[in-house]
Amino acid sequence: MKPPTVLIVDSNPEDLAKYAGILEEARYTVLQAAGYTEAAAILARHRGRLVVLSSLSDGNESGHRFLVDTLKKYPFLPFTFTATAPPLESALGALRQGAYDFLRKPIPTDILLHSVARSAQKLTLALETEKQEKEIRKLFDRSQGELKDAPKGNR
Question: Which of 37, 56, 71, 154 is the most exposed place for a label (fewest CB within 10 A)?
């Protein structure tokens, strides 16, 4: 199975290029967004089936708000924040709000790859579970229909 696509959200073009290069070298498909509005549009196009690596803040915008809004639409999405020197309360708050991981910049290559691999695994498992639940619901509905249509004497 092909690894999920990674969306990197960061207003710093050097960080975007650096982390995209590392992930592309590791054979991930990488999309880039310079801000949360652009990232939200990309997430919508991909129906949330991405791994997100996002800076904690984008100018005046709060990553916490972006996280909450995103997870309302895509609760299964693995969302990792990055920041240079985040206050402990901000990092813990993000994790309490549903962030999957929090990485401190500059991110060592091995830590970045490990975090993204775990996030990709989480997304793959969530999508597989969703697919199985749909199949089970379809089988259940079909069984209910067959039971309803069966002659009363055969029940």
Answer: 154
